[in-house]
Amino acid sequence: MMKILIDNGHGENTPGKRSPVWGDGSQLFEWEYTREIAMRVENELKRHGVDVERLVKENTDVPLSERARRANEIAARYGKSKTILVSIHCNASQNGKGTGWEIHTSPGKTKADDLAQIFWDTANEIFGGTWKIRGDWSDGDGDWENNFYILTKTNCPAVLTENFFMDNETDCKFLLSPEGKSQIVKLHVDAILKYIKKYE
Ligand SMILES: [Zn+2]
């Protein structure tokens, strides 16, 4: 049986990592938003009988080193190829013009690329035509290769999703809407279920 780890980045005490306050008074806090999405993904996967665990149950910011330590301890117990990690984030572009969805892996071809490919295809099914799916095609596939700590210091396949831009009002309103939340939850649940089916 595969072990699924969901990482919700940042904490209530993390500076920045929030949207502007929009005209209607709404505002997105990344730590709070990604926890809500992560909990819904967790509950939905549990309904499908999946062994899933959130890496950060605290509301405060847990350092990346501690998150990687927790992930590696679990991966050592379940087996590196029987554990996957998905880190959920919202993007920001500083100028408010960024839009769409991205997925990141560590550099080089690893098992994380198989997981990223399934996310990529699922994102295209759910958002394609409506939203931009932002690819980095430097190595022939759409995932972005990045030396993010949670991707490079963890021993199991790990991906990081950047779910739309919280500093773009159109993206942010979609993120905060019931349909937006449902689609982002569905993307993560569907992609993880497909990965389990294919690679378990
Ligand atoms: Zn983030």
Question: Your description of this structure?
Answer:
By secondary structure, the chain is α/β, with parallel strands linked by helices. The protein has one domain: Aminopeptidase. The protein is built from six helices and six strands. A six-stranded mixed sheet has the order 2-1-3-6-4-5, with helices on both faces. Strand 4, helix 3 and strand 5 form a beta-alpha-beta unit. Helix 1 packs across helix 6, helix 3 packs antiparallel against helix 6 and helix 5 crosses helix 6. It is globular, with a radius of gyration of 16 Å. The relative contact order is 0.21. The protein binds zinc ion (ZN).
Sum this structure up briefly:
This protein is of the alpha/beta class and 200 residues long. The chain has helices at 30-47, 64-78, 111-127, 149-152, 169-176, 178-199, and strands at 3-8, 51-54, 83-91, 101-105, 144-145, 158-165. The site of zinc ion (ZN) has 5 residues, from loops.
Map the helices and strands.
Elements: E1 3-8, H1 30-47, E2 51-54, H2 64-78, E3 83-91, E4 101-105, H3 111-127, E5 144-145, H4 149-152, E6 158-165, H5 169-176, H6 178-199
Parallel strand pairs: 1-2, 1-3, 3-6, 4-5
Antiparallel strand pairs: 4-6
Bound molecules: zinc ion (ZN).
